[in-house]
Amino acid sequence: MVGDMANFGEAKQAEDGTGDIPPSDLKGIEIENGNTSSDSTESSSGESSEEEAEEEEEEERESENGESCAKQFSQETDKEPKATDSENSLKHCCEKCQALQRPQYELVTPRKISKGRLLLMLEDEGVYECSLTGLVFEVSQKVQIRYCILSWSKFGTYLNDSWKFAGPIFDVDCDPSILKSIQFPHSLCLADRESEVKFSVLHVKNNQGLIEPSVDHSRNHIKWSVSSLSPVGPIVQTTKPAEHHGVVLVYKEVGQPDSYSFRVYLTSNNDSDINDIRKEVRTSKKRYMKIEKPPICQKLLEENRKYRLISDSEGDITPEDIQFTLAVVKMKGYFEAFFEQRPPFKLSLMEADSEQTVWSATIRERDCVDNSAEKTQKRRENRKRSSSTSEEELANKRARWGDESDGPRATKDMTDQQLMLVAKCMGKEWKTVAISYLDLTKLVLEDLIESKEQDLTMMKFNMLDLWRRRQPKGEAGVTHLLMKLNHNDVPNEVISLLQDMLKNK
């Protein structure tokens, strides 16, 4: 979806130097349920682990088919070749932008941790681009950055019609004294219109929305100097309807042996929108499978223009046309296409007025084969083999490390240094982990939080230390903590760290 940061022009500053949204621009609506950044990335306690697993599996399937649908750029041919590694290192932009080029910055691939969050471990000062999201981070030293994609349907309520979102909104967790700047990907085409747009960022903190000035922008990114970290996303003011790079996502209804029914979504090339679509499809009463077709629109999508879906085979398509806007996905809707005959058939998206083709793809019979159950079972087996350690293996390792000269001896308890490493890996779910698996109570955690110690990492360390002190001597080792925490909802980073400690031992 995104390209590299090209040469910046002159800095674009928001008109209000304080960074506050003027009263006319701020609707005054708080974040849903009063959540701040600290809980925007966490799932509610009612979310099922099965739903999270399905989401992870869908992301993995899309990764296997060229990372994310928003990053694909190759055009479909009859043979449908897969992009090579060298092709994948290029970023798609329209011919009008003339911005197809290799990344300027070092590409880094994040690790996926629990509940949709990503983790980057940067080893040195520099500027780095996330290969999955297109975010560009400028750091002054070695650092770990956690981040996730949020939904504009939740945070877009802070803006009125004078400001519109221009790209995905993110929640980034890092030391702001180390993270100097962030470059956010945007979906606008700026060819011939750069003088008509003004970029800023919406920064949501303490249940208030602030418009803060961007440092600069390119045809792919909007640069922002980090002040503090909470939900932040790029926004734009335009004097004319903006043109966006767009994508089309196709989903087939599963369980119809004698007919074919599809949902066809049209949206900007924006990961927040794309995530909303995934969630809507996943929570539908009917079950759908993703049809893997190149999603990139061949022509730009203009706001408030109507688009029509047609097919070269006889079928029923509703509605007749859809107006493209930046409203939330649930308000935009989708095309439904129903066919009684078997594939192949070709779907084409056209501008309703000019009848120019915006996107097209041929749906073949092999595209409609649902083998998700088999893939899911294999994926779960592989994940279980690669990332989990059975109790039997842990017991064998524990026995092997004991000194048996005078009979079995208990393993050593974890050191302060080891606990601190684990504390640093713990995310915002640390209180849930403490109550669920370490036999600590809410009252005990409240005492830790209300203590004089304000550093969050030290709070997590004190929580782990309290667990260690409550165990009998010799029963608070790495093995014991791993057995306690070896659950799906504990961050993979924590499990991997403990497993590495065992191997190094």
Describe this structure in words.
By secondary structure, the chain is an alpha+beta fold. The protein starts with 36 loop residues before the first helix and ends with a helix. The model is unreliable at 1-51, 62-91 and 397-410 (pLDDT under 50). The chain has helices at residues 37-40, 49-64, 85-88, 152-155, 271-282, 329-332, 372-387, 391-401, 416-425, 430-437, 442-450, 456-470, 478-485, 492-504; strands spanning 106-108, 111-112, 118-122, 126-130, 136-139, 143-150, 164-165, 169-173, 179-185, 197-205, 208-213, 216-217, 221-225, 232-238, 243-244, 246-253, 260-268, 288-291, 301-302, 306-311, 316-318, 322-323, 335-339, 345-351, 357-363. The protein is built from 14 helices and 25 strands. Helix 9 (416-425) packs antiparallel against helix 14 (492-504). Strands 1-4-5-9-13-12 form a six-stranded mixed β-sheet, with no helix packed on it.
Beta-strand share of residues = 15-25%
Low-confidence stretches: 1-51, 62-91, 397-410
Distance, first to last CA: 43 Å
The helix count comes to 14
| Main beta sheet strand tally, sense and closure | 6 strands, mixed
